[in-house]
Amino acid sequence: MDKIRQAHDVMKSSHEGQFRDDKVTPYWTHPETVVKTLKLLGVTDHDIICAGYLHDVLEDTEYTSDKIQENFGDRVLSIVNELTFDDDITDEQYWEGCQSMSTDAKWVKVADILTNLGDSGDKSSHFITKRVEALKRLLCDLELYHTK
User: Which tens digit of pLDDT belongs to each residue from 77-91?
Assistant: First the structure.
């Protein structure tokens, strides 16, 4: 089975029965939209695409780091680990964590933030501010990387 298809299937089965905040939309639509956004941004790297599908599995499912490593390799696991944040961190810790990510993880995080901001539903001003600030920092970093 192709690695990207396998990542999609693992993501979908791992998030089975979970829903977005609206309690109606299946959760798996979020990682699918993250991957669509990555592709719109021009990302074609298979490991980054796999990490896009799997970016929430460690936080939200029973799927383990060992399984990611076994099925997708060290690089995908490394990217997913970088993207796994504790919800209880401060704004500054969130921004610093985003800035210290690898370029691969930054691409996924940008797509994740754009997807979250585009989701329907009420969002607190704190939620929006936190993500827009992180997005600005990430885009500046990626622009510097892209122009090298």
Answer: 999 999 998 778 887
Dist. CA 70–CA 68, nearest whole Å: 6
Task: Find the catalytic residue in 60, 119, 133, 141.
Answer: 60
The domain in which residue 89 lies consists of 3-146
By C-alpha distance, which of 55, 48, 81, 44 is closest to 66?
81
Active-site annotation holder among 59, 70, 91, 96: 59
pLDDT in tens, 81-140: 999 987 788 877 877 888 889 999 999 999 999 998 887 667 778 778 888 888 887 887
Query: CATH code at 59?
Result: 1.10.3210.10
Q: 87 an active-site residue?
A: no
**C-beta neighbour count of 49 within 10 angstroms:** 22
- The total number of structural domains that make up the chain: 1
Q: How many residues does the chain have?
A: 148
Q: Is 59 a catalytic residue?
A: yes
